[in-house]
């Protein structure tokens, strides 16, 4: 995302259109998805955007993205564990049903002998 943004900014510089760092920061924050809205609000309230460099914003973005990815992988691991447990329970029920059928068959055959 940032490389594309930098490419666009450098293209604008070639056209003799320059924007301040504040404008760049505002454009990036404004175009983040809605999932990022709480983080954007926190950045806007906690730091002076006019003095914020683009590198600081990018590092904040990447660290937050890493945290989100870590949480996502933890949730996926938990989901996989729970689905694996569910499969074991289903197999246990199938085995139990087979066991009860075998017991009934054994009782029936015992009476015949």
From TrEMBL:
This is Aspartyl-tRNA synthetase. GO terms for molecular function: aminoacyl-tRNA ligase activity. The keyword Ligase applies. Keywords: Aminoacyl-tRNA synthetase, Ligase. It comes from Trifolium pratense.
């Amino acid at each position: 995302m940032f490389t594309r943004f930098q490419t666009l900014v450098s293209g604008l510089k070639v056209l003799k259109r320059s924007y301040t760092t504040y404008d760049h920061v505002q454009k990036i924050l404004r175009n983040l998805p809605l999932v990022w809205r709480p983080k954007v609000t926190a950045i806007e309230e906690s730091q002076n955007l006019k003095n914020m460099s683009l590198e600081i914003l990018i590092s904040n973005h990447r660290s937050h993205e890493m945290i989100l990815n870590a949480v996502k992988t933890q949730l996926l691991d938990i989901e996989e564990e729970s689905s694996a447990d569910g499969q074991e329970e289903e197999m246990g029920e199938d085995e139990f049903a087979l066991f009860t059928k075998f017991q009934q068959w054994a009782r029936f055959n015992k009476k015949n002998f």
